[in-house]
Amino acid sequence: MQRIILGIESSCDETSASICREGKIVNNIIATQSIHEEYGGVVPELASREHQKNIVPIIDKALKHANIDKTQLSAIACTQGPGLLGSLLVGYSFAKSLAFGLGIPLLNVHHMKAHILAHFIDDPAPDFPFLCLTVSGGHTQIVRVNSVTDMQVIGQTRDDAVGEAFDKGAKLMGLPYPGGPLIDKYARDGDPERFSFSESDVPGLDFSFSGIKTSLLYFLQKETKKEAGFIDKHLHDICASYQKTLINMLVKKLVQASLQTNIRQVAIAGGVAANQGLRLRLMQLKETHGWELYIPDFQYCTDNAGMIAMAGWHYYLAGNVAQMNDSPLPRMPF
Q1: How high is the pLDDT of residue 332?
Q2: What is the CATH number of the domain that holds 93?
Q3: Does residue 177 sit in the same domain as residue 280?
Q4: Helix axes 276-289, 230-261, angle to 10 degrees
Q5: Cβ contact 304:28 at 8 Å
Q6: Does this model's pTM top 0.85?
Q7: Averaged over 20-44, what is the pLDDT?
Q8: Which class for 259: exposed (0-12), middle (13-18), buried (19 or more C-beta within 10 A)?
Q9: CA distances (Å), 161 to each of 115, 262, 271, in order?
Q10: Are residues 108 and 47 in the same domain?
Q11: Which of 21, 93, 125, 239 could disulfide-link 183, Cβ–Cβ 3.0 to 4.6 Å?
Q12: Structural domain of residue 62, as residue ranges?
């Protein structure tokens, strides 16, 4: 009898379901919530309501696409946290109820660990230990991955996440939400050396991104007073210079971590891992430092249930089964 895992993701504004059959991801169905665009960011209450509308159709679609019935499921894996509490409640409550009704195990999945385990969806997969730079709208971490169940955060942001710095920077430039991908797009046609922004330098392997946002704000205020239409005229160069600075701050610490740990297997994960500028820079560092570099497929960078199902598969094999009195938490300990 085949072992089949249903993965459910609802930590923010994507409702997603995925089927994992014998350790292979069969599908990765995602419903994105466009309603937040008019507000310039995710509105938690609206996100929860959209999840309520989407979760049944999305799971039904994943089951039908895989040509299976819910009674064939071996376990259900669901994001337990971190994330928006209301959004988590929708997915987790549904997953718990379905698992209880079917009499099968529930598997609690840490959202950021799932991003890391997305590297085991496609071949080649990294060997242990490896370093993973996890970069998203809510997190920026360097993680030493010793095994599927043994991960250690060795560096992290002390304030804002790099994804938030991208989106906030885009907002300062007048770009619509989500602005991070637009900065990446416009940066391709800009000069990254045209403008300079201050890089925060904190001890050890930690990051700080609050200062660069302030640097961009003051820069734009100063230049727009001197030249009307400054942002529109120089948008590509501003984006390229701002993105270059953010990427510099990320890779500086990643290189330092690799040298300190003597680990040359390096991976990236999270929504910002889809950034083309970051991917290109890491490919260059791969050659310079002799790294074995692992970058997930685009669909497994942003929030998705494929990574939840894959994490669930490994938890299922390890016997890491949840208790039915568990609850979703906005911040799970890593």
Answers
A1: 63
A2: 3.30.420.40
A3: yes
A4: 40
A5: yes
A6: yes
A7: 89
A8: exposed
A9: 15, 26, 11
A10: yes
A11: 239
A12: 4-116+301-318
**What tens digit of pLDDT does each residue of 151-172 get?**
999 999 999 999 999 999 999 9
Residues 128, 273: one domain?
yes
User: Could you tell me the two tokens for 292?
Assistant: 């074995």
* Domain match, 34 and 167 both: no
Q: Are residues 80 and 106 in the same domain?
A: yes
Residue 334 has pLDDT above 80, yes or no: no
Q: Judging by beta carbons within 10 Å of its beta carbon (0-12, 13-18, 19+), is residue 108 exposed, middle or buried?
A: buried
